[in-house]
């Protein structure tokens, strides 16, 4: 009898989705009737009819719930609670297995208690919860966990799941290891595809073809990873100015977008969908022998689109390849030596080799394909092998002018042991934005952009409430928005702690603070022999903070790096 298996994932940057797809492929290979879905796409009214459910969930940022998990969580809990209330004598007991992908320092983050909540609502766990850390040198494969009740790493947890699905008795429907599974995502060549043009024609298509694809066309492409651009706002770039010293190691930009009057508040976030540069799209097509102007049909989009549009705005060809990439790529080369090497890199036993080849030098998928030129990814497998290009989020740094959106964006640009300079995908895109021309599509390279605005979950106090703001580096962006908002009307005391390296090099918006009703305490860590950070200044001002907290002050902290111990310094001061 074929075992039924449902895999549900909540993913923000693609790590959990990649793990879920790996579980799906293994289950299919073992002969299971496996199905895969993002949590926000699954009709949860059917959950009680499932035999076995695997939940793969990640944290994002400081432990928040992924975007494609927010909507279903409430509906799942509501549905299961109704079922329990209707039939309390026979609560639903659905077998479940949970894998949590922790993003950044898992021991410091408290996940949203998915496993605990499922258990409360009647789910029966079949395996210990698995955890993985995408920042571990070996990636998600292994992760040392002090809790014996938790499986550390994706691979050990997956081995136990395979043992549960595939016991010692052989399964007739199981597939051999060398058999390639059908693709998960659907993509095909359209019957009326443009023929005769080659990948180098992309450069000549920028002005006509790329500018002709409007933002409503992108909604379908990005829906593949459950991100929608519904309501995206076309904006004009009116400023892209460096605000750190030219000799400073970090390039921080003050970028201003102009648009019609917008609805946003302090703490809201601008969501930007970056593009791959046309030369890199052209190189990708050359390596894969693709006709760049081929019209392709994607299951989540109703109309055919040129292949180079799909690669430019949906595929993350500059991401660091995961283990699953090498596993799939090994099926698509006819070079025995290359195939053996790809299989080795996909094996958990060779985690050190994978780390040295990919993570340490930050080698990208595009560069791996250049290193293995015999890899030929069939078009129908393109969306399975190459991960989706995810949006980037930036705190909005203004509030007074509602026809503008200001960003304080650090350009990620660095060198590794490889000869070619590394760029952040969105950093290179922002760096290329040129002031001027208006167009209603985010695909107008170097001129305009379309953005989304995400509302903050934080409910801000009224202006009569004193505030303590902590914003080091580019974390000053939401503080600037909040201070501008409070300056428009009489407001209670506002204290701002800001930190950077040098007063003369990266003191962001330094000339503005004197025009606002704010008490500023800066910390410049490199301007004196003994390094001084924000937490040191907070500790010295403990009496001031204690007094303002007693008067009901509200604290708002933004961490530019995710690592600093601001909360520690603040708690000690209080």
UniProtKB/TrEMBL annotation:
Residues 230-461 form the FAD-binding FR-type domain. Its cofactor is FMN; FAD. One of its GO terms (molecular function) is FMN binding. Pfam families: FAD_binding_1, Flavodoxin_1, NAD_binding_1. Keywords: FAD, Flavoprotein, FMN, NADP, Oxidoreductase. One of its GO terms (cellular component) is cytosolic [4Fe-4S] assembly targeting complex. PANTHER family: NADPH-DEPENDENT DIFLAVIN OXIDOREDUCTASE 1 (PTHR19384:SF10), NITRIC OXIDE SYNTHASE-RELATED (PTHR19384). This is NADPH-dependent diflavin oxidoreductase 1. It comes from Neolecta irregularis (strain DAH-3).
